[in-house]
């Protein structure tokens, strides 16, 4: 399978990328591990690709002013192996290891995954649970938008066509924070049939995010409230599981019917809460 | 419209004008005639096309040749050292890690990436690392043994790869 012809420009800086984006029908190319398969199937045929793979500054992972800052072009593997991440954000290392396979993790990027916003992608749930803020740049300037306002629907986000995701900023979780990513893997595609990211703070606040369950990843306020401030025991976990997914329009497809996917999501929430409570 | 690329493949430098839509696997097979890299699915799933780009296992049916401009590429043809088989090649030979052999170059290139990060992998580590490589013949069992053989051999030889 061969993509339709397109123009190609490799840029060295974010400013060059923003300038190139002003051409019509132009798309950013990061790892290419969502875009190229879609172009090979001709589901997508942009006139021009702007390759940001050469912008080294976008691959940085660093700690700055109490936040972990991950460049949008950092690959899943870069994040998973990084010492800062292993130390402060084990949730991201654990979750990244479940993405696709070793080769996909070597090329796919966090920014690409967030921009693509596949309903079953893993990063959306992780950034939601970690209270991340996503930084976007356009030729008009910069804006920072909380992950909770970023995902707007099926493959839809707050990203505008003239914007680039530049970094993902996560407040360093205080010592004693527990987290986990629990994913039921579709065995052929390795995407999530349902997955749950949980971050539990020492003050009892509990962030709970799902992916693979609805049109976009989301925080489950009902489940969070049910467990907030309570000790994690069988009774409180049961209450959170019962409270989960209220008002959520759960997806059904040929892999998982609506009731089955709902069941899976609740089972994976239960597993996650037991894990952070252990 | 063509774009010029410069790549080093198995230690040899090449320079070509290519169409941006040319996939790296087509460049390797059809332009450089390095046909050890196979195309199984052409949809990023089977891993038969796995090579190393700057030392990282890559499904090159899902990368454009232009994205590899300036990169150092190793294919299965570049793995042996002056005729001496790489411990993984030796392992697949010794442990019957292949039957038809179609998946083998990809399996070996992926396993080589694993051993760089994790020189003494457990069986579970090996199976997880090979998640993206399909074999329709062996049932994987002897592939795992082949990788274990190579890990042991590399430890004995203290070969750094
Ligand atoms: C076999 C296979 C299995 C996979 N399994 C999983 C899985 O289990 N879980 C999972 O989450 N994902 C999975 N993926 C998807 C993979 O993680 C992709 O790499 C990722 O979704 C996209 O990242 P990319 O860098 O490859 O983006 P690209 O494919 O380059 O781009 C994707 C989209 O994002 C846009 N974009 C990219 N970067 C930016 C940016 N910085 N700013 C604005 N827009 C941008 C592009 O224009 C494009 O529209 C799988 C992919 C494959 C091929
Ligand atoms: S041919 Fe590339 S993954 Fe199957
Ligand atoms: S040996 Fe035949 S596909 Fe693996």
Commentary on this structure:
Chain B: It comes from Niastella caeni. Chain B: This is (2Fe-2S)-binding protein. Chain B: It holds the Pfam family Fer2_2. The complex is a heterodimer of chains A (278) and B (161). Chain A is an alpha+beta fold and 278 residues long. Chain A has helices spanning 14-21, 35-40, 76-81, 83-88, 90-96, 102-107, 110-116, 123-129, 221-227, 234-243, 258-277; strands at 7-10, 26-29, 48-51, 61-64, 67-71, 133-138, 141-146, 151-153, 156-157, 164-171, 178-185, 192-200, 206-211, 218-219. Chain A is globular, with a radius of gyration of 19 Å. The mean pLDDT of chain A is 97. With 161 residues, chain B is an alpha+beta fold. Chain B folds into 2 domains: 3-78, Ubiquitin-like (UB roll); 87-155, Orthogonal Bundle (DNA polymerase, domain 1). Chain B starts with a strand and ends with a helix. Chain B has 5 helices and 5 strands. Classes of the chains: A alpha+beta (278), B alpha+beta (161). One FE2/S2 (inorganic) cluster is lined by residues 98-103, 135-138 of chain B.
List its salient traits.
heterodimer; A: 278 residues; alpha+beta; Uridine Diphospho-n-acetylenolpyruvylglucosamine Reductase, domain 2; Uridine Diphospho-n-acetylenolpyruvylglucosamine Reductase, domain 3; Enolase-like, domain 1; 4-stranded antiparallel β-sheet; B: alpha+beta; DNA polymerase, domain 1; 5-stranded mixed β-sheet; 5 helices; binds flavin-adenine dinucleotide; binds FE2/S2 (inorganic) cluster
Rg of Cα set of chain B: 16 Å
Overall body shape of chain B: globular
Domain count of chain A: 3
Per CATH, the class of the largest domain in chain A reads Alpha Beta
Give the distance, in angstroms, between the N- and C-terminal Cα atoms of chain B: 39 Å
CATH architectural designation of the largest domain in chain B: Roll
The main sheet of chain B orders its strands as: 2-1-5-3-4
Biggest sheet, spatial arrangement of strands of chain A: 4-5-10-6-7
Strand content of chain A: 25-35%
Order of helices and strands of chain B: EEHEEEHHHH
Oligomer: heterodimer
Q: How would you sum up the major sheet of chain A?
A: 5 strands, antiparallel
Helix content of chain A: 25-40%
Kindly name the structural category of chain B. Answer: alpha+beta
Along the chain, the helix and strand elements of chain A come as EHEHEEEHHHHHHEEEEEEEEEHHH
Count of individual beta strands of chain B: 5
For the record, give the distance between the C-alpha atoms at the N and C termini of chain A, rounded to a whole number.
49 Å
Work out the strand percent of chain B: 15-25%
CATH topology of the largest domain in chain B: Ubiquitin-like (UB roll)
Number of helices of chain A: 11
